[in-house]
Amino acid sequence: MTPSSVGSTLPSFTAPPVQQVSFAVMFDPVPLLSVHMGLVWTEMLQSKYPDVLDGPMAINQLEQFSGDALRPQFQFQILPGAPVPQAIFRAPEVGMALGVQIDRLTHSWERPRPDAAYPRYPSLRGSFEADAAAFATFCDYHKLGPVAFRQVEVSYINVLASGSGWERPGELHRVLQPWNPEFSSDLGEPEDVRIAQRFLALRDGKPYARLHMAIEPHTIPHGGTTIRMALTFRGEPPEFSLEGMMAFLDDGHDRIVRAFTAATTPEMHELWGRER
Fold first, then answer.
1. pLDDT tens for each residue of 209-268
2. How confident is the model at residue 145 (pLDDT cuts 50, 70, 90)?
3. What is the DSSP string of 199-239?
4. Number of other CB atoms surrounding residue 6 within 10 Å
5. Which of 92, 154, 208, 264 is the most buried (most CB within 10 A)?
6. φ, ψ of residue 51 in degrees (nearest 5)
7. Coil, helix or strand for 96?
8. Domain boundaries, the chain
């Protein structure tokens, strides 16, 4: 599945409410030291990401497909020496960032200004593929061992602001298809609404990924009522290679776009400029 073959059949919007997009690949820990983080930046990424800072290590969430998948996950790692913090390489003017740590690579875009255009999936995909390939090349050149992929994740965060098609949480049925306000008619309008859903994805009859949809109230700096709608697709690629990882991202993007469209109303689609 390629971006071109997917994009021609997917729903499309001229002004989608996308606030943030992130792609992540989780792998077995590689022996990265602080000096390696500096070399990654100076040798490969400084022209693309002019800023760099230390950040806390991201906690990998891995999908489980046996036993009780609803149980909280705990991970333990025995690391030689003090843990190396996550290095975050940034291009703040365009909202792009790359997080690098011993067991995770995270490529993200966040809308830098309210009027900034969403750069679209094919552009973000190409950027992530280049960064992932560069990181694998760096690890090979510096004899840090092969990058052994474990799981891949694609996440879209949408911020649905009131004032465009709806005003209050009690009017959420104007925005979301899964919300039916009639069941709470005797209780009055809800103060806020939270929805969480999970969908299992199968490959050859066996589970390999999950789509998570989380909807909750969200605060913004200038006030007002907003809803944060996060869709995350996470699981095992068809093969543990760069090509397999990118195929998984294409699959996840396809499922997320279709889930977003199915979960939101035609009235909102019109406001967001649905093209197909």
1. 999 999 988 766 666 678 899 999 999 999 988 999 999 999 999 999 999 999 999 999
2. confident
3. EEEEETTEEEEEEEEEEEEE--TT---EEEEEEEEEE--SS
4. 16
5. 154
6. -110, 150
7. strand
8. 15-271
